[in-house]
Amino acid sequence: MKLPERSVNLGLTTPEREVVLIESVDCAAGDRFSLTFESAEPRWRQGVWLAVDGDVVAAGQVSSQILLWRDTAPDQVEIEVRSTGDGLMRLYNVWDSGRGHGHESQRHTSGMVREALPDGYRYHCSDINPAPTFEALVFSVVRHQPSVGGDESHDHQA
Predict the structure, then answer these.
(1) Phi-psi region of 108 (alpha: psi -120 to 50; beta: other; left: phi over 0)
(2) What is the pTM of this model?
(3) Is 133 helix (H, G, I), strand (E, B) or coil?
(4) Residue from 46, 28, 29 nearest 37 by CA
(5) pLDDT for the residue numbered 147
């Protein structure tokens, strides 16, 4: 299965704020990251989907794709990239509204506002709230062992 590329929610992006639907982070085999759940609104179950074209280890799971739920995962999850075919780790926010759809994502009013940190990013997420607040879920991803010559984000923005 071909993994999706980084994408932006053009309906919510403004000149002052880019809203990312799918994030791509440069990675290499052996890279380690910490994903920290910082806060979540209680309305719905919130989580993060992450994937590589290869294998990743997180929360005791080894797979190409892992779904981490705020209510069942540890507050901080250690992630190790075991292999990657294209050098990218993808991630996006997910939620379960309790309407029988399972995990949901990639809707018109959903996305993540990215905030730069010294070794990674904090993501402020919106689900399907008609008036997005970008506080449905807040999490950060920090790199422990940077790739040689790699930069943190695939979008190569300053």
Answers:
(1) alpha
(2) 0.86
(3) coil
(4) 46
(5) 45
